[in-house]
Amino acid sequence: MDIQKRVNEIYEDIVDIRRDFHKNPELSQKEFRTQKKIQEYLNQWGIENYECAETGVVGIIRGRGQGKTVGLRGDIDALPIKEKSSTGYCSINDGVMHACGHDVHTTVVLGAAKVLKELADSEESIAGNVKLFFQPAEETIGGADRMVKEGCMKNPDVDYVLGLHVMPYIDAGMVELKYGKLNASTDTIVITLKGKAAHGAYPDLGIDAIAMAGYVITAIQTVVSRNTSPLNSVVVSLGKISGGVKDNVIADEVVITGTLRALDDATRSYTKQRIREIAENTAKAFGGIGTVHFEDGYQALINNDEVVDVIKENAEMLLGRENVVFKEFPSLGAEDFSYFADAAKGGFFHLGCGNKKLGITASIHTENFDIDEECLKVGVLMQVNNVLSLLK
Predict the structure, then answer these.
(1) How far apart, in Å, are the Cα atoms of 115 and each of 3, 46, 176, 356?
(2) Is the CA virtual torsion 168, 170, 171, 174 positive or negative?
(3) Cα–Cα–Cα angle for 39, 44, 48, rounded to 5 degrees
(4) Which long-range contacts (CB under 8 A, 24 or more apart) does 275-278 make?
């Protein structure tokens, strides 16, 4: 099969699929229509599939010979954003929008699945298997973790897994790659400081939790500036503080919440330890009690170099070396593809979807976000070739 020719032939179909998903976005854990449409396409193309993580779908394309198994992931949920667009495929669900490009990610996996199924059924066939992961709830609870825990990476066991994310700061026709660390882990920080209430006229009779909080917040900033190598990246952002009952009453409790982001487990663990030590001991110095609770978020996304080598080779062959760029620094943003990449050798890359000449430059997670639909063709072409290379 001439893969590039076949992708060109189905291009109008995949544009229609993407526009349908874009027009009918659904929030995390409510992707029931999206799930149904995905299964309709897979059934139509003769691709075995089953439901997973309540609103997700796993598809399986079985080759004729023994070999590796490669997974393809596309997240399917939308965001609670009201779209501002005059296109014919603007969201019809008020206040819900595919502002992060998950409609593109889903469509790319479907397009690749169609081509790979045709290859598997042809005389040349493929050796090995392809698994398709249509993952819910990337924007909220981390549907990837749930899918992995429900066994999506087993029977057959996945050897390699691929994913991508559209990026409007890169023009369509280009891709962005990175070896190693790509996205940060995320944890929610909850610090509770307990003191003793008293009348504001008699502060010596109380233990001021607000004064305590001021010192805790200031000291925590030194975790990044003085306890972490300037060559390493970690972010501690305390975004909310609440406490006190009245302006003339010494506050007996303050709660501080924030986020911790790191690029490796050692830094993540050490930073948690330092935050806990600072909160507990600062509170103790004031005569109060400090407790720290961490709500674990996504894990850090670390690319496998072997898989990135394959993606790079295919990108340069298909798009030209001048259209393959490398990301200099990791992002401190989160990406729950990390759960798939922890279960198999993973490769995640960025798919250009912008077009400055056409004015398609709006950032993801904004009300004006859109794509140059040529990126769909590039995404399908890349993923089909990546799968075939890894199966070999």
Answers:
(1) 8, 12, 24, 30
(2) negative
(3) 60
(4) 275/189, 275/191, 275/220, 275/223, 275/236, 278/216, 278/219, 278/220, 278/223
Cβ–Cβ < 8 Å for 173, 376: no
Binned at pLDDT 50, 70 and 90, residue 335 comes out as very high
Q: Any idea which residue has 């003085």 for tokens?
A: 226
Whether the CA torsion 310, 120, 52, 25 is positive or negative: it is positive
Residues counted in the chain: 392
Position 241: which residue type? I
In this structure, are residues 56 and 76 in contact, taking their beta carbons and an 8 Å threshold? yes
Helix (H, G, I), strand (E, B) or coil at 176: strand
Residues 36-60: tens digit of each pLDDT: 999 999 999 999 999 999 999 999 9
Looking at residue 64, its pLDDT comes to: 87
Instruction: Give Cα separations from 35 to 18, 98, 386 (angstroms).
Output: 14, 15, 25
Q: With pLDDT > 70 as the criterion, what percentage of the chain qualifies?
A: 100
Residue 55 DSSP one-character state: T
Helix intervals (H) in 122-241: 143-149, 209-226
| 344-387 confidence digits (pLDDT tens) | 999 999 999 999 999 999 999 999 999 999 999 999 999 999 99
DSSP tag of 45? T
**Active site positions, annotated:** 298, 373
Give Cα 271 distance to the centre of its chain.
22
Ordered DSSP codes for 91-140: -SSTT-B--SSHHHHHHHHHHHHHHHHHHHHSSS--EEEEEEEEE--TTT
Coil, strand, or helix at residue 59? strand
* Nearest-angstrom CA–CA distance, 68 and 330: 30
Give yes or no for a contact between 113 and 72, defined as CB atoms under 8 angstroms apart. Answer: yes
Which residue from 25, 30, 37 is spatially nearest to 93, judged by alpha carbons? Answer: 25
Asked whether residue 66 carries a pLDDT value surpassing 90, the answer given is no
CA angle 199, 203, 206 (to 5 degrees): 80
Contacts of 341 (CB under 8 A, 6+ apart): 161, 301, 302, 303, 304, 348
pTM, rounded to two decimals: 0.94
